[in-house]
Amino acid sequence: MEPRNRTNEHPTDLDVTAFEKILAILPLEAYAAGETILRAGLKTGRLLILKSGSVVILKDSLEIARVEQPGAVFGELAALLEQPHAADVRALQDSQFHVADAALLIKDPVALLYVARILAQRLVVADSGLVELKKQLQAGQPPSALGKTIEKLQEVLKVGWDVGPWIA
Q: In whole angstroms, what is the distance from residue 140 CA to residue 158 CA?
């Protein structure tokens, strides 16, 4: 897989400043280590933005990612698609989240752009990973090589949750 181009990974400073203003007025919720924050299959209508702490994202009991970067967004797919959550999010340590109603994405273009850019980053990474896997399959690579590529893909897919140190 090609290295990520970090110059295009994050919203502009102007977007970040505007989004930080939104975060400042949102209520906070705290979760203890081990507590489930979002549960797959439930429709909460909530959007959560990590302020502090660490979480694990689980889909069908498989760990997708561990996230500890402030600014990481959870529940965005369910909010945009008006569907139940597709994965469990569980606190690994005591964590705090800014909490918004999913309607924030409809009401506020800054919040929508923030989430759209995160999702676009995830899509770009997933697409390049799938292309790499397809090339390896066509070349007849052994299962061990495919497994390594899948592990790399899992790491880089965290870009959608690990948004970087650019938001407090």
A: 28
Structure tokens at 16: 């970040």
Question: DSSP strand E in the chain: where?
Answer: 28-31, 36-38, 46-59, 62-67, 73-74, 88-101
pTM of the model: 0.76
d(CA 74, CA 99): 10
Amino acid at 117: R
Could you list the pLDDT tens digit for every one of the 168 residues in the chain?
A: 333 333 334 445 556 788 889 999 999 999 999 999 999 999 999 999 999 999 999 999 888 888 898 988 999 999 999 999 999 999 999 999 999 999 999 999 999 998 888 888 878 877 887 888 888 888 888 877 777 777 777 666 554 454 443 333
- Of 18, 6, 8, 75, nearest to 47 (Cα)? 75
Which residue ranges form the domains of the chain, and what is each CATH number?
11-119 (2.60.120.10)
